[in-house]
User: Fold this.
Amino acid sequence: MIYFLAHWDWVLERSRADIVELIKKDYKIISICPLEENKKNIEKIYTESINWDLDRTRTLDLIGILNLRKILGKLENGSIVHIFTLKSLFLYLISTLFLKKELRIIASITGLGYLFAGTKLGSFLKFLIRPFIILKINKVIDFLIFQNIENLNEFMSYSKFNGKVKIIEGSGLSTEKIIKKNNFNKVPNIIFVGRLLYEKGIREFLKLIDLIKNNYEVNFFVAGKPDFGNKSSINKNEFNALCNNNNLTYLGEIDIYSELYKYDILIQPSYHEGFSRVLLEGIYTGLWCMSNDLPGTKKIIEETKCGKLISNNNLNEYLEGLDDYFEKCEKQDFRKARLIIEQKYSTTSILNQMKDIYYEF
Assistant:
């Protein structure tokens, strides 16, 4: 039995469903998360689901932390808990203050996120809680998983963690479910896919629309939702303006596996990525991908050779990348890229690495 814990049900539904489908053959997987918009899917995917009553709109929901403490108090000693996201890890550490419970804890840090984004508030909060993190993390966490070496080094230096660590690149794709693209549209469809967060580069994408519209005939699409419980999310006024923007089509959330093939170019102007899932999905589908040059995107583009890395989200470089698209799209061979993704980043490959850790426990 393994408990998967996250502060948002979207995390356990969006990027963990494929893994859980396979791992349920060997383990009973129980989710611990707030059961909200994704409740039906969570209850369908997981063997059992425990509702964690938490208000994500608050920076620190003390009642939510107490609720998690109650849940943890009911778990059997020796239970394995796998935590996903840095915020979930911080909330877990606070909830275990003076809790006498022997649990085996794995934490997957899929990206360093808001606290490490360089904002004034994020930097202040990071500084404020660091003594507590250093005090607690080695007492209650057994194993940390990162998606790239840069995130590992930065967090290890920050937290002084001295336990076991491992890099697992990605969260796994069920490549057999992805509909592959056969032809490019005459008028390219350019898409942004992701949460509508500043750190995901939604502002930069909107700026690009004005720049590209003046130079090319293209269509723009945005797929994803705001996360109003996240300090980095666009606010409600910005979201309404985006929905009413005549220069783009807002799609809401889409089924990437079955819908992404309709588009031609994926732009990911993110400022922080662990190991970009959507970039892997885009390339495997057969899209020309342009991404900000980050530790979590660089290796993907360089290995697959199916896109362009952009230095510091330079808008003019995105224009150059569009020129590359028109030059190379018909000649682009995605077969080698797909083979690399199947071998290294498929659900089966990622699951085997996770199983090694579970077996060790």
Observations:
- Residues 57 and 228 are 7 Å apart (CA to CA).
- The longest strand covers residues 104-109.
- The radius of gyration is 20 Å.
